[in-house]
Amino acid sequence: MRGCAFRVRAIVVRKEVIYSPRLKADKDRFYEYFVKNMMDYNGGTLKNARVIIDGSGDREFRQKLNAALRRRLGKGIVKDLRFKSSHNDVLVQLADMCAGAIARSYRPERDEPFRWRKMLAPRINDVWDFK
Predict the structure, then answer these.
(1) Burial class (CB within 10 angstroms; exposed 0-12, middle 13-18, buried 19+) of 111
(2) CA–CA dist 59, 95 (Å, integer)
(3) Which residues contact 115 (CB under 8 A, 6 or more apart)?
(4) What is the DSSP letter of 123?
(5) What whole-number distance in Å separates Cα of residue 128 and Cα of residue 57?
(6) Is the separation of the CB atoms in 95 and 54 below 8 Å?
(7) Can you tell me the distance from the alpha carbon of 70 to that of 78, in angstroms, rounded to the nearest whole number?
(8) DSSP calls for 75-98
(9) What tens digit of pLDDT does each residue of 68-91 get?
(10) Can you give the pTM of this predicted structure?
């Protein structure tokens, strides 16, 4: 990973602070809401981006999310949006590892909770704590 050029933007959502019954009850809505927010508030970093999203969810969910993001973000932000399984894509695996490193840093009961996040720190552009 050292030789690869990549940047990390993440959102940390503590589910207990979610007040919307709709977001609490519907996993697809929860996922869609936070993906949209990450894309909306990108700080100008997304320009003709190729976006790969972990391929979880059924086909209908993926189609709805794809259409909603394209409609909401407008032209010039996302060039290509695809869903891929982490089992078959090393970039999605890398994203999973980064998410795991950041998530671990929010669990003080774990041994060395900041170990992996410190290693990742030079590549982190933003970690948004949703409140």
Answers:
(1) exposed
(2) 22
(3) 104
(4) G
(5) 24
(6) yes
(7) 7
(8) TTTEEEEEEE-TTT-HHHHHHHHH
(9) 877 777 777 888 888 888 888 888
(10) 0.81
Query: 49-54 and 78-84: which strand pairing?
Result: parallel
Neighbours of 84 (CB within 10 A): 13
- Helix then strand then coil, in percent of the chain rounded to 5, is 45, 20, 35
Contacts of 7 (CB under 8 A, 6+ apart): 45, 123, 124, 125
Tokens linked to 111: 């041994």
Angle at which helices 27-40 and 59-73 pack, to 10 degrees? Answer: 30
Q: Over 80: is that where the pLDDT of 98 sits?
A: yes
How does DSSP classify residue 129? Answer: E
pLDDT at residue number 56: 66
